[in-house]
Predict the 3D structure of the following.
Amino acid sequence: MNNKNLHILQVVGTMNRGGAEVMLMDIYRNISPHIHFDFLINYKAKTGVIKGDFDDEIILKGGSVNHIQTQWDLGPVQYINEFKSICQKIGVPDVVHIHLNSRSGIIAFAARQAGVKKIIVHSHADLKFRGSFLTILANKAELFIQKHFIEKYATDFWGASIEANKSLFKNSVINKSIVINNAIDIDNFINFDKTSTSIFRDGLNIKTNTLLLGNIGRIVRHKNGLFVIKVLDELNKHNIDFMFIFAGRADDETYMQEINDKIDACNLSEKVIYLGLRSDIPLIMSSLDVFIGPALKEGFGLVAIEAQAAGVPCALYNGFPRSVDMKLGLVSFLSSFDCEEWITTILSIKDNKNRDKGAITLAIKNRGFDVKTNTKLIEDFYAK
């Protein structure tokens, strides 16, 4: 297989602004024009087809956006038949690249049934199941079955980290697996000057000397946004002039309401701004003084790489893997949820911004997190 006129089918969930989806779109923007991407969106019957944040861009770039109900909704047999029909409609791809973690095994089998020769299963998270004992047991049983199908029908085994690979792949294929780091377009983050960030802050009525804290990511329970409000409540008692901004999709509306209720209860409504879903993440990140990341777990935590690319110091809970630290002196890991410890850390790092573009670029590239370099690597793997 050569790298000319390759047809790749990306099997994903809704293409919204999440870590894996942003990375995939960055690859799409940098991939050789001889490599064609189509997308197969797996959606739940109860929600129906939801237009993704990136759907228009995908179509504009010449890709197609196709939809299939999840294997849970259709059942394995009908799912496989639907998958085969879609492949016939768009043309059997040279490569199927699956990004759906614990659902990947049946999809790999479906791709093999459709006549696809190269089937990549890409693990984006160190899988941790939550819920009742029976829920966890059922999830682990399903994962056991999916792992068997992955081992038997996938040809390539990729992951965002060693931990992600170990959580999805059987021991028999771990030695065949490779790590493809989630990566960013560094240029998007290092080129903002003080004028740009000042204009952004002025637009939100945030003074130059105000300590600007922030978080970017989906609003879901395991991201632990409620804890940030607790920290802000305590910080407010220290008479610190600060503002907190956060951006991202409110995927869990119940949890978002809990956060809003806590903001009101703590009288923080004038110090907290929710920006909603934004496309100007590099500008927002570059405007911060400190990025706060209290997530209970992160599959990788690409947002921490983005913060460092912007030269912003980070206070991160241990839910982030240590590999997110680019060794620029910008990352502080915390192992507890003691508010005073977080406040001490935030105040100790708030003046540590790093504006050395050369050092930032070199550090991120050397650790394998530059999307342009990684895209070339992925092109080569597609062509093998």
Summary: The chain has a mean pLDDT of 94.
